[in-house]
Write a structure and sequence with these properties.
6 helices, mainly alpha, 200 residues, binds S-adenosyl-L-homocysteine, two-stranded antiparallel ribbon, Four Helix Bundle (Hemerythrin (Met), subunit A)
Length: 200
C-alpha cells in the first residue's frame, strides 16, 4: 500500500457512491413530495457534510492541501481504510436498493411513500448513515492529513447530530405507530439483535 493507492481508494469510494446514487437522484426528481422538513438548516447541514466528506479531502488528494497538516503515511492504517471503504460501498449499494423510490437527498416523504423495514433496514433504521460513518472513518484512515482526514467525521457528524432526530420526527408524523414499533426493534446506526426479553 502506498499513499497514491490510498488516495485512489478515497476517489474510488467517492465516485462509487455517486454512481450508486445517480439513478435515485433522477427518479426522485420525478416523484412528487407530499411532506417535507427541508429548509435553511438542512441546506447548511448538507453543505457542511459535503465540505467534510468531499471538498477538503479532494483538495488534499488533488493538491496536497493543506500541506502543513500532513503527517507520515502508515500503510496499516490505509489497509484498514480500504476495508472500511469496501464495507461503505457495499452498504451504500444495499441501502439505495432497499429504499428505492423512497430515497431523498433531504428530509422528504414522497407520494405513496412506503416505510422500508426489510433488507439492511431490518435491524438498523439509518443504515445509509452507517455507510457515511464508515466513509468518514475510511477517509480518516486513508489520508495522512490532520485536516482532510478527520474532516469527514466532523462534517458528516454535524449533519448526523442535527438531522437524525428531525428525520425520525418526520417519519413518525408520516407513519405513526408503524414507525414507533420499528424504532423499538432497531438500532439507529448499529444493528440491534431482536432477542425476546426474558421474563422477570
Ligand atoms: N436515514 C435513512 C435514509 C436516508 S435517505 C438511512 O440512513 O438509511 C433520507 C430519506 O429517507 C428521508 O427523506 C426519509 O423520508 C427516508 N427514509 C428514512 N428511513 C426510511 C425508511 N425506513 N423507509 C422509507 N423511507 C425512509
Amino acid at each position: 500500500m502506498t499513499l497514491s493507492i490510498a488516495k485512489a481508494i478515497y476517489l474510488f469510494l467517492a465516485i462509487g457512491w455517486y454512481i450508486v446514487r445517480i439513478p435515485h437522484e433522477r427518479r426522485s426528481r420525478r416523484t412528487p413530495i407530499s411532506r417535507s422538513a427541508r429548509g435553511g438548516k438542512e441546506r447548511i447541514l448538507l453543505c457542511i457534510s459535503f465540505t467534510g466528506l468531499g471538498i477538503l479531502p479532494f483538495a488534499y488528494v488533488a493538491f496536497g492541501f493543506p500541506r502543513f497538516a500532513t503527517y507520515a503515511f502508515q500503510p496499516s492504517l490505509a489497509w484498514a481504510g480500504a476495508a472500511a471503504s469496501a464495507a461503505a460501498l457495499l452498504l451504500f449499494y444495499l441501502t439505495h436498493r432497499s429504499l428505492g423510490r423512497n430515497w431523498s437527498v433531504s428530509l422528504d416523504v414522497r407520494e405513496s411513500h412506503k416505510l422500508v423495514t426489510d433488507g439492511v433496514y431490518t435491524y438498523v433504521r439509518h443504515p445509509m448513515y452507517s455507510a457515511f460513518w464508515l466513509w468518514a472513518i475510511a477517509q480518516a484512515l486513508l489520508l495522512p492529513n490532520w485536516i482532510a482526514g478527520p474532516a469527514g467525521l466532523v462534517g458528516f457528524g454535524t449533519l448526523y447530530l442535527f438531522r437524525v432526530s428531525e428525520e425520525e420526527k418526520l417519519m413518525n408524523e408520516a407513519f405513526g405507530h408503524e414507525y414507533a414499533d420499528y424504532i423499538k426493534r432497531t438500532g439507529r446506526i448499529i444493528p440491534r439483535a431482536n432477542r425476546p426479553r426474558a421474563p422477570r
